[in-house]
Amino acid sequence: MAETANTHVHNLEVVEVIKETDDAMSVVFEVPEHLVHKFRYQPGQFLTLRIPSATTGSVARCYSLSSSPHLDDDLIVTVKRTFDGYASNWICDNVAVGTRMTVLSPSGVFVPKSLDADLLLIGAGSGVTPLMSIAKSALVGGAATVYLIYANRDERSVIFGAELDEMMVEFPDRIIVEHWLEIDRGLPTADALVDLVAPFPTYDAFVCGPTPFMAVVGDALAAIGMPDSHIHIERYQSLTGDPFADIVIPEITDGETPATAVVELDGAKVEVAWPRTTPLLDVLLSRGYDAPYSCREGACSACACTVRTGEVRMLRNDTLVEADLAIGLTLACQAVPLSDNVEIAFDQ
Ligand SMILES: Cc1cc2nc3c(=O)[nH]c(=O)nc-3n(C[C@H](O)[C@H](O)[C@H](O)COP(=O)(O)OP(=O)(O)OC[C@H]3O[C@@H](n4cnc5c(N)ncnc54)[C@H](O)[C@@H]3O)c2cc1C
Ligand code: FES
Questions:
Q1: Which residues form a coiled coil (predicted)?
Q2: Mutate to test the pocket of ligand 1, among 234, 238, 301 (most ligand atoms within 8 A of CB)
């Protein structure tokens, strides 16, 4: 398949599938030499896959990388079947060695700033996927100590169980895995989690799992006084839009004066005319600039950037919280200009 003008969209071949549990499998993509620079990633980031659909043509879904950039040449995502879900079941039923899939370059901000700072990783079910990448990367590429709390229904549903055991043998002083099996201990409660997390109030916490699980984890971390700035959360949700769609920039009409954006991207500054109703990301991509994104619907924060001067407004924001807005963050896929001149930096 030809590469599109959009430099984030690529076509990768599946070179292996690994059955992890009865309802989860890992998909291994080979990255051809000429695309290696497009698929550099940080532990905790995700790929966005296009999944064919007879009714809508295709749907897009994000899957966290379980591989580590410090260890693995190939890209690995791990997909767990969602009950009644379309894409996860399609992948588990149809993807095999030789399948080619359309994929966006890695993105996401669920990434430790340092692999040397101690990490409290808390996940449930398929939420372990980005935590696995972070844990492996910290052990191999950093000096952090890792404490992983990993909740599952029962032993059969534990993804990466053997690999985690091996990591504890290889790095006995640096990683502890606390399995929480519902079948033995019931659903985790905030009180019970407080007992587990209490020794680690200064660690950086990375949390990923179903919404009710994240709520009790949030309560437990608040109860031990962990500052919000140490708590990082990845919310799994299905995209509703189509980030693979072509980008259409409306013509600038006579009498319309576009704003001007000066954008710092990959260490360089570029200046673009910014039509008043067009999101900045669309303007940049249509001009061939390689700005980061995934969902293009204000849901993932892959396109987060900082407004240095001037003013913008977001058409939609499902991901940035007050603390983000207070430090000037905006979403490039939703930002339109309010002032005539805006300076923005992709510095996240
Ligand atoms: C950053 C990120 C990383 C992720 N990483 C992973 C990962 O590593 N591994 C992983 O397995 N998943 C991951 N996900 C989740 C993944 O993207 C999908 O959301 C998940 O696979 C479910 O997709 P699906 O198409 O199978 O389900 P969907 O078809 O989207 O359905 C999801 C749920 O909604 C219900 N539903 C569907 N349509 C309707 C409707 N019209 N009305 C009411 N209910 C409805 C379904 O019954 C189902 O329970 C990640 C998500 C994000 C955002
Ligand atoms: S690309 Fe997902 S929020 Fe902008």
A1: none
A2: 238
Do 18 and 67 share a structural domain? yes
What does the angle CA 339 – CA 342 – CA 347 come to, to the nearest 5 degrees?
145
The answer on 73 and 13 residing in a single domain is yes
Best substitution site from 63, 89, 94 to test ligand 1's pocket, by max atoms within 8 Å of Cβ? 63
Which ligand 1 atom lies nearest to the CA of residue 89? Answer: 26
164 lines ligand 2 (CB under 6 A): no
Provide the domain limits for residue 219. 119-234
Q: Is residue 134 part of a domain?
A: yes
Which CATH number does the domain housing residue 229 bear? 3.40.50.80
Same domain, 77 and 128: no
Asked whether residue 249 is assigned to any structural domain, the reply reads no
251 domain residue, yes or no: no
Q: How many CB atoms lie within 10 A of CB 173?
A: 6
Number of domains composing the chain: 3
- Residue by residue, pLDDT tens for the chain (348 residues) are 333 345 678 999 999 999 999 999 999 999 999 999 999 999 999 999 999 999 888 999 999 999 999 999 999 999 999 999 999 999 999 999 999 999 999 988 889 999 999 999 999 999 999 999 999 999 999 999 999 999 999 999 999 999 999 999 999 999 999 999 999 999 999 999 999 999 999 999 999 999 999 999 999 999 999 998 899 999 898 998 888 887 777 777 777 799 999 999 988 999 999 999 999 999 998 888 989 888 899 988 889 999 999 999 999 998 888 778 989 999 999 999 999 999 999 987
The reply to whether 211 and 263 lie within a common domain is no
Which protein residue's CA is at the shortest distance from atom 9 of ligand 1?
A: 79
Q: Which ranges in 40-159 belong to alpha helices (H)?
A: 87-94, 128-141
Ligand 2 atom, smallest distance to 294 CA:
1
Q: Is 299 in the pocket of ligand 2 (CB under 6 A)?
A: yes
131 and 229 share one domain: yes
Is residue 208 situated within a structural domain? yes
Tell me how far apart the alpha carbons of residues 64 and 210 are, in angstroms, rounded to a whole number: 15
CA–CA dist 208, 128 (Å, integer): 7
CA–CA separation, 263 and 269 (whole Å): 5
